[in-house]
Amino acid sequence: MFQLDILFDISILPSNIMVLRDDDFIDFVKEEAGHAAAALLEIQGINCVKSLLMTDNVYAIMDVKSKSLDGLKNKYGYTQDDGTFVIQPGVKGNIEYLIDLLKKKCIEDVKLAKSSKHNQSSSSSTIPKSTSTVTSNNTTEKTISESKLNVQQFSLVEGEHYFILLQNDSNGALKCDIRCCCQKWSSLPLRRGKFQLSNFYRHLQGFNNICPALKKMISNPQSALPLSTNNPPPLITSDNVSQQVVSPNQIPIIPPSDTIQSNSPLATASSTSISTDNDESLMQQSSSVKPKRP
Questions:
Q1: Mind listing the pLDDT tens digit for each residue in 242-253?
Q2: Biased-composition ranges for Low complexity (predicted)?
């Protein structure tokens, strides 16, 4: 008997799948389950993994008697002799595959979290605890957390504020990690042949967590790391990954979108492309801040 479990490979999921919402989530559904599945979820307001898994029956909309839904029903379902509609088997199969894949992802994440917590507990039992006194200025913290306008004057320069590691994993799949100057590593998910900067931007200025290096730059611009007068160092890559850097890398702290590449007509034409054997690329364009060439 054919084992369906072999179909569920969670490694194909973007690393930030659990935080994708609205258009980003619907775009993911289109890629993984097709446009019909995406349309069926979108019209019901299912806009993230949690809302999908918490919906008891995503096909119940076919039983709703509303003329506004007739177009959807006729396009993705069949009309029975009694006037009721049933969803097309292929659309139903794609949605059920996606749901089972996401359920497996959640289960694996829980197992990984428990294993990590157990390892940390084992390590803490052998390492003596140290105490430290941490002072904070609530007024300064609040100002930094709420500041948005002042951040736009900063640009991050590769080799000074961040470092990129591009390599193949044990399965031969291309992966990219970025290290902030505060030593924090972030994995960049690969979608549509481009690495997404959303995880790195989330580290820089998340809702309740702002990068300490960025805090220092905001509160005291004079202490920001100086821009290099030399060419930035090349990307760190594995031996079997070819690279071509066509212009210096600079990342504006306020991103124009969730992706590295911007198609806005107002965007400054400055980009970096890393080409690989699989024709995948890492694209970056700055927004309103024009890059400062070294």
A1: 333 333 345 554
A2: 118-140
